[in-house]
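[User]
If only I could read backbone structure tokens as easily as an amino acid sequence. I have put the entry right below:
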Amino acid sequence: MAVKEGQCLWSPTEEFVASSNMSSLMSWLNQQGIASCDDYSALWQWSVAEPEDFWAALWRYFEVISDTPYQQVMSSREMRPGVTWFTGSKVNFAEHILRHKGDHPAISAMSESDSLSVLSWNELHEQVRRVATALRSLGIKPGDKVSAVLPNRTETVVAMLATISVGAVWSNAAPEFGTQAILDRLGQVSPKLVLFCDGYTFNGSRFDRTQVLSDLLAKLPSVEQLVRLDVLGDCPAFNTKLPVQTWPTLLSTEDPGVDGFKFERVGAQHPLWFVFSSGTTGLPKAIAHSHTGVLIEMLKFMSLHMNLKPGDNSFFYTTTGWVMFNLLVGMMLSGAGIILYDGSPVYPSTDTLWRLAEESDATHFGASPTYVQLMEANHIVPKDHFALTRLSTVLVGGSPSMPSTFDWFYQNVKSDMWVTSQSGGTEIASAFVAATPTQPVYAAEIQARALGMSVKSVDDHQRECINQVGELICDLPFPSMPLYFLNDEDGERYQKSYFEDIAGVWRHGDFIKINERGGCYIYGRSDATLNRFGVRIGTAEIYRTVEAVAGVADSLIVCVETENGGFYMPLFVALEPGVELDDSLRNTIKSELKVQCSPRHVPDEIVVVAEVPYTLTGKKLEVPVRKLLKGAKAAEVASAGSMKNPDSLNFYIDFAIQRLAKAV
């Protein structure tokens, strides 16, 4: 029988709970006389009721290294831009990763063309020291901007940590991005030094990027130094007059040794990196986070919510163009090693990532719901072919999960396993709602609101609601809020992005339902609102039902207001090969939506499409399609360089033009 939303799928054993980092924190808080919290609910309540005490306790618990003591935990409890954290402290994010040492794996990496390689913690230390020393010799100082166009490889992590070690500000774009997409990002940053690769491989094909990157350099006048990493190895030189260093040259720099190397500890407001919004609508937001804010937030998230420990090996499939890469590196704060994969997740075979999990001795495995759909379609059953003996945790992220997503892991990977999910965003470099190892797993449910995150679901009148879908808001500041956006001197874009619609709270743009036990369900983006006659519908509800219908491969739904005060809600469906949208299938889709959801969930029209448009990070382009149907120009709603399948949008452009013409 099909698993239903909210059905209990797994409960942790007493031993699992007792050995968790979350239980260790609660014991420590009790022993120190700081707070008496016997379960997660009490701990969360205390964390949002007394945020200064909570964050100060974490600072002590994780033994944060600072040149100077902080003077104040947070400058205000008012939810707004500009709240400062741990003022007076001086820390370095990379130093806290590299305080872990040993000969066990720090980075395990595999690509389409290279077998698994392992870099130990001690080897990582040495490589970071050498590259950081080389960067200093090239004139890189605290506050300088260093960018990379590199794939998901060990060298990228080393370059990132070396950059952060010297107090420079890191940013990266994936080499598979289009020229304009890279320029949209690095053009805002104006880096002093850029690390470029010669190319990359994907799905068995080689992509020489030297000409693209040469053209890009001509449009980045701020660049003074260039570092080249050869991935393909037989590509021509960059067409540039700039001095070009090679990656081996940086690595050959004399190692100053542990005692001779100094991490640049920086003030609480010093930027750590720039990360970029998905870029589905116009120029991506270039978001600055602080060393201090991201450090304390990720120490909390990776240790307590992910339950990562020294000796663990954690994998999440990502590219360097997504904040998940930054989060993957952040997992190392816990002392856990990370696992990288560069290439297509289904090349040379559909089960490639499971082979990687076996070979790397993975304890944590992360992928998106769309990856699970791919596994189902290809009848992949990892437990039948791979020895995943140490695998204890699965992290599902990137888009809302369905009950069947959770169940697939229990049926096909392991029956005794912690399957988790979370939801947050690039803007916060973390999650608002997250996993906790002390509670059961319910189908499609995110286990709890994250510690320190005062998250609520509110209705159209901004009243808090339980057990009904509402707007996700956060009414208390948290450390990893953006410092600022680049090219937003007056802060107007930052203010409009999260604080314009509801005064005094962060409105994230997601639909959420929170039940009486604190479990959370994400139902898609609220700015892609399906509003039928005053009733708000999350898109995930539609997809959950429609994509369970035999013959439907994928779907996308939007709802637009019409001039007469009504609504037009088309459902776009991509069908399995050989399937046609006849009256029988059309009626089945409508009937299932009516029965499983409500009559308001039934679309006004069902339209067959070749494919659904996606961003490079696997999100459906609901908002751009909605804007097209409201009359926006194609160039204003989506950046082709940020799309996985940019040609797919052409159908929707033509469809919108034809519909708008009929309405005139």
In short: DSSP finds 22 helices and 37 strands in the chain. Residues 269 and 585 are 57 Å apart (CA to CA).
